[in-house]
Structure formats: structure tokens, C-alpha cells
Design a protein that fits this description.
It is a single chain. The chain is 64% helix and 0% strand. It is built from seven helices and no strands. Helix 6 runs antiparallel to helix 7. The chain is globular, with a radius of gyration of 15 Å.
């Protein structure tokens, strides 16, 4: 709601919005506390809404990747689908990747995925790159 009513998005100070810090902390703890394959739709929708502050993208990716094993197909598929969703959310809002975006961490995670010996996971990693960055 706040994002929709503020005329100048770039000057929005998220930390000054009452309750924002508590909501963000609860969301991040929920992400950390659940298995990647067990994220409910409501959690995914909440992360999409919170990406009105696009600087959170790297934080979300770090939590997601650190909880995902390249050798567990369901986790990889879930993680790549969530990552695709977040990139699409930013694209739909015409937001570029934030200046703090950690490309090195993303590329390192994708490198691990593509380098693993599980063909389905390799294909899912390549799918993400092709769909979102080609």
C-alpha cells in the first residue's frame, strides 16, 4: 500500500515506516525456519510485496540459496521458481536490479548448480538464466 501511494519511490525511507522492521524480521525468520520446498504461497506473495523495497532481493536470494542443496531436486526446483518469481516481480514494476545486488553470490550459486551431476538441476539452472536474463 505504501509503495502505491508514495509519488517518489526513490526517496522512500523504508525503515521509517511504522512496523516495517518487525514485519521484515518476521518474514526473514519465517524464510529461514522453513524448508525451501515448504514455503506456502502466502510467504511467497509476502516476499513479492516486500520487493517494493528492491534492495531486499539479495537478502532473499542468500536465504534461499543457503537453504538449498544442489543435489536435492525438489529444493532446486522450488528455489529457481522463487527466484524467477522475484525477478519477474521487479520486471513488472519496471524496477531494475538494485545497486546492492550481489551478482557474485547469484553466479556462484548458479555455477554450483550447473556444475552438479544431476541433469534435472542443471537444466533448471539454465532455464532460469535463459528465461530471466536472455
Amino acid at each position: 500500500h505504501v509503495y502505491q501511494v508514495v509519488p517518489r519511490k526513490e526517496s522512500l525511507r523504508w525503515h521509517q515506516i511504522p512496523g516495517y522492521a518487525g514485519l521484515l524480521k518476521a518474514l526473514l525468520l519465517e524464510m529461514k525456519g522453513r524448508e525451501v520446498t515448504k514455503y506456502p504461497d502466502s510467504l511467497l506473495n509476502c516476499t513479492g510485496a516486500m520487493l517494493a523495497n528492491e534492495k531486499l532481493l539479495s537478502v532473499f536470494i542468500k536465504i534461499l540459496f543457503l537453504k538449498t542443496s544442489a543435489y536435492h531436486i525438489p529444493s532446486v526446483f522450488s528455489a529457481m521458481n522463487y527466484l524467477d518469481y522475484w525477478v519477474q516481480v521487479l520486471a513488472l514494476r519496471s524496477l531494475p536490479l538494485p545497486p546492492n545486488f550481489d551478482f557474485h553470490f547469484l553466479l556462484h550459486g548458479l555455477d554450483i548448480l550447473v556444475g552438479c551431476d544431476m541433469c534435472l538441476n542443471v537444466s533448471k539452472g539454465l532455464w532460469f538464466v535463459c528465461v530471466d536474463f536472455c
